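ESCALATION

Customer reports they have been waiting on this structure for their group meeting. Please prioritize. Original submission:
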Amino acid sequence: MKKTLLFVMAAIISVAVNAQTIFSENFDGVAVSNRIGAIPEGWTTYGDNLTNYYQGFSQSWDVYQFDDLGKVGISLSYTGEGTAVNRWLITPAIAIADSGYCLTFEIFGIDNSYPEAFEIKISTTGVEKTDFTTSVLNVPVVPAGENNYLVNLDAFVGQSIHIAFVNKGANAYYLVLDNISVGIPIENEIALMSAKIPTYAKYNTDFSVKGVVKNLGVVALTSFDVTYNIDGGENVDTFTVSNINVAYSGTYEFTHNVPANIATTGNHTINVTVLNPNGVADDATNNNGNGNVIIYENGTQRTVLFEQFTTGKCPNCPPAHEYLAEVIEPREDNVVWLAHHAGYYTDNLTVPENEELLVFYNSNGTYAPAAMVDRTYFPESGEPGPVMSAYVEETFLDNQISVPSFVTVNISAITYDTVTRALSVTVSGEVVSDISGYNSPRVSLYIKEDGIKMSQSGASANYIHNNAMRDALSDVWGDADVITSTTVGSTFSKTYNYTIPGTWKPKNLELVAFVTEYNTNVNQRSVLNATEVRLADSVQVNTVGIVEASDVELVVYPNPATDYAMISSNAVITEVAIINTLGQTIATIPANAENVQINTQDLAQGIYMISITTAEGKAVKKLTVTK
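Update from on-call: job pushed to the front of the queue and completed.
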């Protein structure tokens, strides 16, 4: 698994939870260079001799500036040795004059698969490690996300103390520390962590307004009030949430008892406010939040475009293929699976379009196995672009499938000539709800192939590669001249012509069409809807069917023929059909042998197609008759 120094938080709640503060540190005043700075003066640090995986950091504690989180204390726990670190950060002396004082601080966990660990120790004498004889908190597993901790300091009244934050993580990422405070904590304080508003809702239809509140007071939260308004209008009736018991730092998800109902299509903002924890007015700084909902009139079921990055040189890709097959199979009616052979070197299936799509990593580096869902950027994935680990959480797919699409997309009017291998296909669709809010909607048409035998690192020399993108019949980023109107009821259509290369097996080919946004920002190129058609299931041909006996050896001789022609095969031939250039079958000859003779004396001079059916399938050969 890839480990990168990256931290993304959807919402950061920082609250002064102490009514009377005698010590605090949030690291905001530290100067940084290339994001890294030194621990403030007056603090003491102790390190170890372990080798950091990430460069530029000390072997104890530093200050680091994240894009979303700002400046924090940080201590690496990902080392070359993979053993537990022992890295200390010690406060200056803090005098505890009276009872009621507590230590509060925030720790951020990075990944539940690689949990951090830490311990809080206290010294009443000095700052040598041996002075810290009292352990007041030991956390062997830090949950991912923001965690608030509170330690009562009544045992140290009348003493001057030093507090040690000891990183004890083993083969994790890094311990993140912020908003350290010593003071008398507030009894009743809440914060709105998030307003959970649906992304889409149908007009004149009820939908629930939900949210998550966090208790930042030391008294258990038993009740609070919540209200909301739409687009800054009048608040709905206040709803009191009661009969709950939420401890300090705990969270509670609520649903307002009055559902929202909006009769105007378009983008609307739901403003949510929580207040009065336990019936007491609190600091309202973090009591407000909002979420946007798109109200639509009509929608259609979405088919998700799932794109995988893989190569034959990727040793970690075969297990990912198996995982994805298990995830996609129960959702196959709503998912189109496409594989791009790029991201980890290249192989014989790599096409230039695959490499163009690497911009979706939105990074200087790429990797495999990787994937993206509808080319949509999900900040919660922790990645800078739409591409994420191929071990995609099922919720990403399920949530995307549940999002209505406002445009249909269809593949029709398919013709294929088995002689020239010329393919013609039409992509069409209709706008069912206004899509003017999307960035330059475009139509794309790709072709993919299953059942390709090729060597695979980590597997075998005859590994079967499926869903391999073979080419883009449209521009790789979609054709901009197809969807000319974004208003409801508008239709679009474009016919594509293409010649299928002779090495591809038409019976294994599928056409993939989708409507996508286009923007210079790769994080705003989402797919609006997709569809796929297997060529062999829906083709209309000019001569004969396209199902090929690809493993059968067939020979037609003499060719040109005058009186007769012999057809020889390594499989039993069950039927031979002679077809003229108009596509008409003029003779059908039943057979049950590997060698069949056909009479050409009564045939007019010209070119004929010989459709040969064997137990292995059907193939077509061209025969010229001369007189």
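Sent to customer with the following note: The mean pLDDT is 91.
Escalation resolved.
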